[in-house]
Every structure is written in structure tokens, then in C-alpha cells.
Specification:
Length: 364
């Protein structure tokens, strides 16, 4: 490996002097009268005060995360959702209209969207039929303008975790950044790649509080990487990218690990039960094994099922247009009651539409 972060980063970013906010210039602890940021000194029209700008580096949230994840505070970046981190990485490394990224469809759509917004070329190396990485294909697609490889594990929408050995192959043989998106890691048997950060300076691991942690509305995504890469992201991010309410609520939530762990256990149990119930249905062809909190299900006629569920006010995700996902719906694991509702709605539907007999047309 011949990785050099300094050479990889865009020249304008390397030379960028970041915006310095009021709270960054003064040492906040020592100051008692804050007249440096044009805030409202009287307060907020709310029970809780939000009149002061929040901590630009979210130290309290990072402190808790560093303990939970056994990593350094300097190795943590917090974004306005993982989506902000994906966007930042694209802008830090990809020179518009010149550089490229690699994605492995079917996968999460934001990698491609962020690249296109930044006018970076998107090289698509499809997963193999069994949803594993085509490592040779990926490495062949790499050229000197390839800056990022996005790997989602467990993958959305297929639900499988990628083989660790495949990800190591990429880390060892690619001199750009390998992004391992672990949004669903809590539901997986796989070990997080956070443990590999010291070994691989070209690795960034993305996690989020939007899934297992039940905080999607707060918008908190986390990047774990080398201190050097984290500094770059700090330099480019909007100064106050995480609001004060989100920071204080996240800090509170991070104290409640037991509740989250209980839900993870229950969700994985429901995943097994939901799978077995779905497999009994005549309309279901394959329930793919999942290490996430959703199931990818191949139906005989996905469109028909999808429309019927919508009529019953149940939303699932139609992934039929994705490569290798013909006739597939992605169904999140809900509460036992929600999962039963989906099953019962499908059973009702199979009763209405006979699939075992074929009546002849009448002569008219
Ligand atoms: C849901 C999801 C995210 C979440 O992003 P946030 O912006 O943190 O809500 C990231 N990556 C994948 C693959 C996801 O499915």
C-alpha cells in the first residue's frame, strides 16, 4: 500500500483556511459574558434555552461514543446524518469533472447522488449474483482518478454483510479511501471495521444513530477514521452542522444503551420469525438472509404485492428496478404487530387472487 492522504486530497481543500466561528476563537470555559456572536442574550421562547450557538465539535456526544466504541475522540466525526459525511468525503477528494468514485450496486443510493452533485464520475461494479463484492472487477476499475470506494456492509438493500477478506483486499490494494458504511452493523454478526482503523489509514467507517439507536429525526451520522482525515472533515464542514437540541438529546440517548440493546435483540428475533412466516406464502419466492433490520424478499409479482400493501396503507420499498433485484421488495422489520399485519394482508390477498387454478375464458 502506498497511501498518502496529503496527495489524495483536493488542492483547494488542502490550502483552505476554514471559517473561524466566534466560539472557536475564544476559550469558552473562561468567558462569562458572551457578546461575540450576535445571539439573543435574553433567552429562547422555549422551556429550554437554545439561544447560544452549539459546540461546533460536539465534544459531549463524542466523549460518550468514544467510550461505547472504544476509540479516540480525535477519531470521531459527527455529521448531519451519515449523508452529510458521504457528501463531505466526495467534496474533499473528488475534483469535479475529473475524478471518480466506485460503488457496488445494488446499494445505498446516496453515494451516487453525492458524486453526481459534485460532478464526479460514478463507476459501477455490480455485486455478484450472490451479493458478494466483485473485488477483481473493482480493482480493475480503479485508476489514478479514483478517490473513493463505497462498501455498504451489511448492504442496503440486499441485507448481507460483505466478506471481511474482500474488504481487506480493497484496503490493502487501493491507495484512495475505502468507505465502509456500517449503518446496520448492530443487527449483524460481523465485527465492526472500527477495530481496523489503526492498521488502515485509508479506511473510514460510517455508522449512524438513525437505525438501531432510533434517532433518525435527530440526524446524527458518525465517521470513524484517522485523526488526519477527521481534521480534514472538520475543516470543510459547516461550523455548526449539528444543532444544540440534537447534541443534548443524543448525549441523553447514549446513556440508555440497555434499551437499544433490547430492541436489537428483539428485532433480530422478529427478523427470523418474519422470515419463516413469509416463506410460507405462495407469492414469496426467496427471503434473502439478512444481517440488517430489513428483509429483501423476491415475489412472483412484486408490483402486485406492493400496490396491494399501499392500498392497505402499508409502505414497503420497491427495489424491483435494482440490478439482481427483479421482483424484490425491501421490508423493514417492524414491531411484532406490524409484521403480523404485513403477513395477514398478504394472506388475505392470496385468498382473493387464486394462483392454483386457471379458469378458461367464456365464449361470448
Ligand atoms: C439509512 C442509511 C444511512 C443513514 O444515514 P443517516 O443520514 O445517518 O440517516 C446510511 N447508509 C445506509 C446504507 C443506510 O441505509
Amino acid at each position: 500500500m502506498n497511501f498518502n492522504l496529503d496527495q489524495l486530497v483536493r488542492k483547494n481543500i488542502k490550502e483552505l483556511k476554514p471559517y473561524s466561528s466566534a466560539r472557536q476563537e475564544s476559550s469558552v470555559e473562561a468567558i462569562t459574558t458572551f457578546l461575540d456572536a450576535n445571539e439573543n442574550s435574553y433567552g429562547s421562547p422555549l422551556p429550554r434555552a437554545y439561544n447560544r450557538y452549539p459546540d461546533p465539535y460536539q465534544k459531549d456526544v463524542k466523549k460518550s461514543l468514544s467510550i461505547i466504541k472504544n476509540t479516540g475522540i480525535d477519531n470521531i466525526f459527527i455529521g448531519n446524518g451519515s449523508d452529510e459525511i458521504i457528501d463531505l468525503l466526495t467534496r474533499i477528494f473528488c475534483v469535479p469533472a475529473r475524478d471518480n468514485i466506485i460503488v457496488c450496486p445494488p446499494t445505498y443510493g446516496m453515494y451516487e447522488v453525492c458524486a453526481k452533485i459534485n460532478d464526479a464520475e460514478v463507476r459501477k461494479i455490480n455485486l455478484q449474483e450472490d451479493f458478494n463484492l466483485d473485488v477483481d472487477g473493482i480493482l480493475k476499475a480503479v485508476d489514478e482518478k479514483t478517490k473513493l470506494i463505497f462498501i455498504c456492509s451489511p448492504n442496503n438493500p440486499t441485507g448481507n454483510a460483505m466478506k471481511r477478506e474482500d474488504i481487506f483486499q480493497l484496503l490493502k490494494n487501493f491507495n484512495g479511501i475505502v468507505v465502509v458504511d456500517e449503518a446496520y452493523i448492530n443487527f449483524s454478526q460481523q465485527k465492526s471495521f472500527i477495530a481496523e482503523l489503526e492498521q488502515y489509514p485509508n479506511l473510514i467507517v460510517l455508522q449512524t444513530l438513525s437505525k438501531a439507536w432510533g434517532l433518525a429525526a435527530l440526524r446524527l451520522g458518525i465517521g470513524y477514521a484517522s485523526a488526519e482525515l477527521i481534521s480534514l472533515m472538520n475543516k470543510v464542514k459547516p461550523p455548526y452542522n449539528i444543532g444544540g437540541a440534537a447534541q443534548s438529546l443524543a448525549s441523553e440517548a447514549l446513556q440508555n444503551i440497555a434499551q437499544v440493546n433490547e430492541w436489537i435483540v428483539q428485532t433480530t428475533k422478529e427478523r427470523d420469525r418474519f422470515t419463516k412466516e413469509l416463506e410460507k406464502l405462495n407469492e414469496v419466492e426467496i427471503v434473502y438472509p439478512s444481517e440488517a433490520n430489513f428483509l429483501l424478499v423476491k415475489f412472483k409479482e412484486a408490483e402486485k404485492i406492493y400496490t396491494h400493501l399501499i392500498e392497505k396503507k402499508i409502505a414497503v420499498r420497491n427495489r424491483s428496478k435494482d440490478v439482481h433485484c427483479n421482483n424484490c421488495l425491501r421490508i423493514s422489520i417492524g414491531t411484532p404487530g406490524e409484521n403480523d399485519l404485513v403477513i395477514n394482508t398478504m394472506i388475505e390477498m392470496e385468498k382473493i387472487v387464486p394462483t392454483s387454478t386457471h379458469l378458461e375464458n367464456e365464449l361470448s
